[in-house]
Amino acid sequence: MCGIVGIVGTEPVAPLLVDALKRLEYRGYDSAGVATIEDSQLDRRRAEGKLVNLEARLKASPLSGTVGIGHTRWATHGVPNEINAHPHFSDSVAVVHNGIIENFRVLRDELEKDGYSFSSQTDTEVVAHLVSRGLKQGLKPVQAAHEAIKRLEGAFALAILFRDEEDLIVGARNGPPLAIGHGEGKMYLGSDAIALAPFTDRITYLEDGDWCVVHREKAEIFDLEGNPVERVLQRSVGSSLMVDKGNHRHFMIKEIYEQPEVISHTLSHYLDFGDCRTTIGEDLPFNLAEVERISISACGTAYLAGLISKYWFERLAGIPVDIDIASEFRYREMPLKKGGLALFISQSGETADTLASLRYCKENGQHIGAIVNVPESTIARESDAILQTLAGPEIGVASTKAFTCQLSVLVSLAIAVGKARGAIDVQKEKELIRALTEAPRYANKALKLEKQIEKIAADLAKVRHILYLGRDTNYPLALEGALKLKEISYIHAEGYAAGELKHGPIALIDETMPVVVIAPHDRIFEKTVSNMQEVAARGGRIILITDEKGASEVSIDAEHVVVMPDMPEILTPIVYAIPVQLLAYHTALAMGTDVDQPRNLAKSVTVE
Ligand code: G6P
Q1: Each residue's pLDDT tens digit, 1-57
Q2: Contacts of residue 100, Cβ cutoff 8 Å, sequence gap at least 6
Q3: Does the CB atom of residue 399 touch ligand 1 within 6 A?
Q4: Which residue among 378, 603, 606 is best mutated to probe the pocket of ligand 1, counting the most ligand atoms within 8 A of its Cβ?
Q5: What single-letter DSSP state applies at residue 507?
Q6: Residue 455 burial by Cβ neighbours in a 10 Å radius (0-12, 13-18, 19+)
Q7: Average per-residue pLDDT in the chain?
Q8: What's the confidence (pLDDT) of residue 601?
Q9: Is the pLDDT at 97 greater than 50, yes or no?
């Protein structure tokens, strides 16, 4: 988290740095800052809160240097205020940092003994002082930076600026991503290619342990020992993608509305709709038929997509699936039989815990499959097979279209595994794929329910606690509904397997407690109806999301019934995600919260 940018340019760079930071704000937005050099003066502007505050500060007091670095922060060490905002200075050195310097305590003690005093509570400031101390000891800037980088432990991406070098930025990467952007007589550094998209589409990604020396005319990359290394220069697709809200009020609602299209793109990438067959497996570097077990790790919404897919893999392919939250998996020391398939689901492809889990599985002889939205991401690059979600850039912090695209990939993969293992025949494959071709159409129909959902949301915005219930694949969707709602509306919400209600959460039910029940008319609809009876008997307020058949059969007096079209069961997790997302969105809107950038959250989580 935190976004980094650096420019060695030919015109005043502060406005360009801010422009890039706007595209990086998804990584954190509790404070921001830029520093530039002009006439051998190192100067900075910093501000607490969102980028608009930094922009106002720059407007009142502009910076005109042609080389500079910028940062948008998601606080780890030290509260989000101006003092802790980056860039951090030490004499002639300025540093911006993303990640955590794990040995900062030891380094800070050492530097304090050497007479350095710290003005912030951040771990980053040790880097500025370490480099500065190197300079004082007579090292050249690049050497001083290299020596400092060698002392750092943890996960970091850095950009370092030197007051006396107007044609130099040193960058470093160990964990969080960092890319060099190649311009004409200008050079850039950024946390991702999208940040650099207005400037260049010629990108080189640093690998873990790399550090780089960036001048206007050239950029060199070295390994930790200081040996030059070659990294591929690639054309980034980031630049060709539009990232704006269009006519929508928020990115989140724009992204919700994009779902019919992106689900369709994603499904048609993995399924041949003409012949009704899956195309996954044809070019995989491992044989799906030989896989005996699947393990899935992911975080947040991506984890919940994985949890839904467990039902699909087990049911359609008859293959056992282990699924874990990546932050648990990475330390669980799970024994893995060689030749298993390990799947990692991640919108950003940079989530630290998911990446660590991937590396564990790789060391333990698993085939690695990445379901990511960013094909240049670290998780993608370290995988044997990339199954990309074609959602396009997702900017709203609360994941929506990435989730349904992850489901689209996972259902296609489950069919492919089922076919490879002989668990489903050609007839069943055709039937499933024919059903999936309808997903975009049903998603469009679900969007038509927005007005009704807006009214329900107005009621929900008045309460402090909400329960979500579902069974089977609707259980993870209930978890996702609760997660989405709490993330953006700050109303406490919990998701439960409907059958688990009586083992605890039923104690919470009274006439003030809304219970959102996700229950299409499926094989176990009646079971969920019984759970609703239990809620109704205790005066709970039921908001039922069901289909026409379910609505016609249910005899419970629900406060609201959202009626979805009847659809094949395989589609329900993908399509029912839409009313669940709309409910969270409109509740947040009614609460007046910051929908796209909810407090304390960030879109890309590159720390543990
Ligand atoms: C953050 C985001 C979530 C996302 C999770 C995993 O918490 O706010 O929306 O689901 O990270 O991110 P990933 O990029 O790995 O999907």
Answers
A1: 789 999 999 999 999 999 999 988 888 889 999 999 998 999 999 999 999 999 999
A2: 76, 77, 123, 154, 155, 156, 607, 608
A3: yes
A4: 603
A5: G
A6: exposed
A7: 93
A8: 81
A9: yes
| C-alpha span between 551 and 556 (Å, rounded) | 10
Question: Does residue 302 have its Cβ closer than 6 Å to ligand 1?
Answer: yes
Query: What is the rounded average pLDDT of the residues 283-296?
Result: 94
List pLDDT tens digits, range 557-576: 899 999 999 999 999 999 99
Name the closest-CA residue to atom 15, ligand 1: 346
Q: Is 373 in the pocket of ligand 1 (CB under 6 A)?
A: no
Q: Looking at residues 507-521, what average pLDDT do you find?
A: 93
Handedness of CA 594, 595, 596, 601 (dihedral sign): positive
How confident is the model at residue 460, as a pLDDT?
94
The order of strands in the sheet holding 219-222 is 88-90, 93-101, 154-162, 169-174, 211-214, 219-222
Cα(231)–Cα(593) distance, rounded to whole angstroms?
A: 43
How far is it, in rounded angstroms, from Cα 416 to Cα 399? Answer: 26
Amino acid identity, position 146: H
Centre a 10 Å sphere on the Cβ of residue 150 and count the other Cβ atoms it contains.
13
Instruction: Spell out the domains of the chain, with CATH numbers in brackets.
Output: 3-240 (3.60.20.10), 245-437 (3.40.50.10490), 443-594 (3.40.50.10490)
The mean-pLDDT minimum among 117-131, 218-232, 270-284, 403-417 falls in 270-284
Q: Give me Rg for the CA atoms of the chain.
A: 25
The 10s digit of each residue's pLDDT in 200-212 is: 989 999 998 999 9
Whether the CB of 346 sits within 6 Å of ligand 1: yes
Q: Which of 252, 343, 486, 604 is the pocket-test mutation for ligand 1 (most atoms within 8 Å of CB)?
A: 604
Is 542 close to ligand 1, i.e. is its CB under 6 Å away? no
- According to the per-residue pLDDT averaged within each range, which of 389-393, 481-485, 604-608 is highest? 481-485
Q: Please identify, by atom number, the ligand 1 atom nearest to the C-alpha of residue 399.
A: 9
Contact 378, 352 (CB under 8 A): no
Pairing verdict, β 341-346 and 294-298: parallel
